[in-house]
Amino acid sequence: MALHTQLPIYRAAYSLLDVVTDLVKNMPRDFKRSIGEKISAECIEIMVLVFRANVASEKSAHLSELLERLQVIELLLRLGMDKRLIARQAYAGAIEQTTSIGKQANGWKRSADNRPLRGGQGFHG
């Protein structure tokens, strides 16, 4: 098992957090507290879920939650762009990162779902 910090999905999630931190910094104060903090918190939670999935024997639940939180981030980023809190180019860069994370998480989930369970298989009578 690789260290979670060495995984490409972790690096992509960290990159998203870096991008989001800059986006939130430039938001007006009232939106920074509501939308900005939620986006940042969801990004941090995604990084935690990468760690949890990496160490868990049953990865699917963690990866499903990660994908759900990624949808929340994309929704809030879209709202930020629609309200002109986030520039279109910055939005595009953040969505590029979320797409990368989503593809990696889905691939990891498919791989984990297809992996045979260890121990306890077969007839032991």
TrEMBL record:
It comes from the Bacteria. Residues 105-125 are annotated as: Disordered. Gene3D superfamilies: 23S rRNA-intervening sequence. Residues 14-111 form the bAvd-like domain. This is bAvd-like domain-containing protein. It comes from Paraburkholderia caffeinitolerans.
